[in-house]
Design goal:
Helices cover 11% and strands 49% of the residues. By secondary structure, it is mostly beta strands.
């Protein structure tokens, strides 16, 4: 290796830049891959809109889930329309090869207090399954579609 080649190789190694997961330049490789102490809620959750269909009934659903898990862990959301006592707060569940959404009524009226929606994934992207109220999961059939 010539002196010139060694000199260029040394310069190239000295010019290496490191970036953290947010894209900010940092000084060392260790800093680039170090766990960040401050993680925003946006970093561990995203929202998807779904529509549950049962004949003439359509529920509007906004589900918040952790995209870094699989099946995706549901961390919140709401059933916003189409159901007695809307809105309903989604309290838990998961989305993957199967779906489960648990919600409790926050709106007014003489409606059930909880709903559980379950289903299996099918193509085109949707879930086919059942739902029920106050602990039941198989009272009514549904197809739940991703809403674009």
């Amino acid at each position: 290796m010539t002196t010139q080649a060694r000199k260029q190789k040394g310069q190239a190694q000295g010019e290496h830049r490191f970036h953290n997961p947010q894209g900010a330049e940092v000084k060392t490789r260790d800093e680039a891959f170090a766990s960040t102490q401050e993680v925003s809620a946006e970093a561990v959750a995203t929202t998807s809109k779904l529509e549950l269909h049962n004949g003439a009934i359509t529920f509007g659903i906004e589900v918040k889930f952790n995209p870094n898990t699989y099946p995706h862990v549901v961390v919140g959301g709401q059933i916003t329309s189409g159901i007695c006592g809307a809105p309903w707060d989604i309290t838990g569940g998961f989305i993957g090869d199967t779906i489960r959404l648990d919600a409790k009524r926050t709106g007014q009226g003489s409606c059930a207090n909880t709903i559980t929606i379950v289903g299996e994934f099918q193509n085109p992207p949707a879930y086919r399954g059942t739902y029920g109220f106050n602990g039941a999961t198989s009272s009514f059939k549904h197809t739940t579609l991703y809403k674009c």
